[in-house]
Design goal:
two-stranded antiparallel ribbon, binds adenosine-5'-diphosphate, alpha+beta, 6 helices, 45% helix
Amino acid sequence: ADQHAAIATRLESLGLLASGVAHDFNNMLAIILNCTEFVAEDTGDEVAEDLNRIRNAVKRARELTSQLLVFAKREPTQVEIVDLNVVVTDATDLLRRSIGANITLNSQTCSGALPVRANRGRLDQILLNLVVNARDAMPDGGAVTITTGITEVPEDPARNLSAGRYAELAVSDNGTGMSAEVKDRLFEPFFTTKPADKGTGLGLATVYGIVGDAGGTITVDSTLGVGTTFRILLPVVVHPAGAEAETPETPESGCG
Ligand code: ADP
């Protein structure tokens, strides 16, 4: 629980810092990006090549700042009741296309609905971050599996969980796995083992923040040379408010 508190405090102060920097930085980058595009239109090949390099660097920097913005929660988000199974099913095709041909991605959702209180875009972000990490852990290809289900949890102060029914979202890979040192630090903001042009170290810190905001928890099981499973628990919404009609009153038994 101490570790939870320490990470939470660190996330908060970093979030404040990051949101200010990222917002301004992002606007400046947008201007630079537009200028290079204008210049590229009326100059020769070599200049165009250099401009292209600039443009790629700027694009990458913009990706970083937009990640920072999500991380810092500056982007306003709306919390609604969403069916986690629908989110997973809808995201699967897109995720499959974005991770490359040498990796298979399967999702196995429990039958029925898994209503949780969260922002849909953020759930997509969680899936994307976990799946991209899985891909990066499998340079020679492999398999990613996303599964969902319902699990009953007793009171668990160590994990900051109250007793109840939780929707479980697991993302598994058969990649490199990770050492105990990496496992200890992987949710820290800016902790990465990837080269500077690939890793930001914000992926899992973001996931951690989103899951925490939604009243859930995330754990990791990993074995070097075998693979890794991230497991997220989110409280199941048992009595959705009347207006949100698409979800049933209680989760279907198929998920339980
Ligand atoms: P980044 O992906 O930018 O490095 P993350 O916060 O997403 O940042 O991940 C932090 C580190 O955790 C990674 O650099 C990697 O060492 C480790 N990691 C995350 N996911 C996995 C995975 N599925 N398999 C092995 N290592 C992982």
